[in-house]
Amino acid sequence: MNLGLSVQHRLPGFTLDVRAEAPPGLTVLFGPSGSGKTTLINAVAGLLRPDRGHITVGDWVLLDSATGQFLPPHRRRIGYIFQEGRLFPHLNVRQNLLYGRWFAPRDARGESLGRVVEMLGIGHLLTRRPGALSGGEKQRVAIGRALLAGPRLILADEPLAALDEARKAEILPYFERLRDEVSVPILYVSHSLAEVARLATTVIALRDGRVVAVGTPGQVLGDAGAVGARDAASVLTARVVAHHDDGLSELATAAGPLLLPQVAAPPGAILRVRIAASDVILAREAPRGLSSLNILSGIIAEIRPGMGPGALVTLAVGNERLIARITRRSVAALALEPGQPCHAILKSVAVPPEDVGGGPLSPE
Ligand SMILES: Nc1ncnc2c1ncn2[C@@H]1O[C@H](COP(=O)(O)OP(=O)(O)OP(=O)(O)O)[C@@H](O)[C@H]1O
Question: GO molecular function, one example (predicted)?
Answer without folding.
Answer: ATP binding
